[in-house]
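Handoff note, outgoing to incoming analyst
You'll be picking up this chain. Sequence as last confirmed:
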Amino acid sequence: MFRKTKAFSGFSVDNLSSAKQFYGDILDLEVSDMAEMPLLKLHIFGGYEVIIYEKPNHEPATFTVLNFPVTDIEEAVKTLKERGVKFESYDYPGLKTDANNISRGDGPTVAWFTDPAGNILSVIQE
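Most recent structure output, in case you need it:
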């Protein structure tokens, strides 16, 4: 039924203007406004799109909403930190981040951060 449908994902934020600045300027993604509705569209490499909508009673996702594969995670984390992005630190059994906020070992090498609305994003080593 959906085999030939171009699916897309979406998530909420508490402020579209802040989201547009963060995703466009900080993460350097192509972002467009949707004229017919108060939505943002993130244009992801490869022809993928993600919709962001403002929700008055927004609550940040408690899971990772977007993962960005990178070839050099150390460089990606360093660059994002220079742009003001704050990375998450974890110290749980089976999930620990190092001094650079990168989780290594069990599973993929990954670092998590949040958007201005508190949604969790990650950079993940390819």
